[in-house]
Amino acid sequence: MVDVLSSKQRRHNMSQIRGRDTKPELMVRRLLHACGYRFRLHCRDLPGKPDLILPKWRTAIFVNGCFWHRHDCRYFKLPSTHREFWEQKISKNVERDKIVQAALLKDGWRVLVIWECALRGKQKHTPEQFISEVENFLVSGETPASELKGKFS
Predict the structure, then answer these.
(1) Number of domains observed in the structure of the chain
(2) Which residue segment(s) compose the domain that 53 sits in?
(3) By C-alpha distance, which of 28, 50, 40 is closest to 118?
(4) Other Cβ atoms within 10 Å of 113 Cβ, number
(5) What CATH number should be reported for the domain holding residue 113?
(6) DSSP SS3 for 54
(7) Which residues fall within 8 angstroms of residue 35, CB to CB, at 6 or more apart?
(8) Cα–Cα distance between 91 and 133 in angstroms, integer?
(9) 141 lies in a domain?
(10) What is the pLDDT of residue 5?
């Protein structure tokens, strides 16, 4: 299939996609801060530059977009144009996520992945449910890695 946009239009569209300070990330930051949690942003000295780190709990939090990190939910659909390119790109993202999480776990960090679908749409968690799940993860101390997904995914 041929791309419906010119290469200049496509380049502009792709340049507008942000890797940090996304809406889901800002939502997580607001909720955590309102509950009294203090965190650092995009810590460059940790593998993968986690979106948030909670040093007190030695926890790294990643807020992942369902499309960019291939989450099995309604927000992920592989594009029909340039299919091989997208398959390769997203596969690399998923592989890098695994490597980064393994490195953080090896260094003694706990990892929490919050998926975009947990924060938007019909399946989203309420703010109370979200904070409750995050607090359960932080307090439990048993689980080194966890994911917060949409309620029905």
Answers:
(1) 1
(2) 18-148
(3) 28
(4) 21
(5) 3.40.960.10
(6) strand
(7) 131, 135
(8) 28
(9) yes
(10) 67
Residue count (the chain)? 153
In a domain, 4, yes or no: no
Residue 112: what pLDDT?
92
Cα(66)–Cα(114) distance, integer angstroms: 10
> What's the confidence (pLDDT) of residue 2?
62
Q: What is the mean pLDDT of each run of 10 residues along the chain (153 residues)?
A: 70 67 87 91 91 93 90 84 88 95 93 89 82 87 74 43
Residue 12 domain-assigned (yes or no): no
Query: Strands 145-148 and 52-54: what pairing?
Result: unpaired
Tokens representing residue 34 in the block: 């309102």
Q: φ and ψ at 111, to 5 degrees?
A: -125, 130
Identify the three-state secondary structure at position 59.
strand
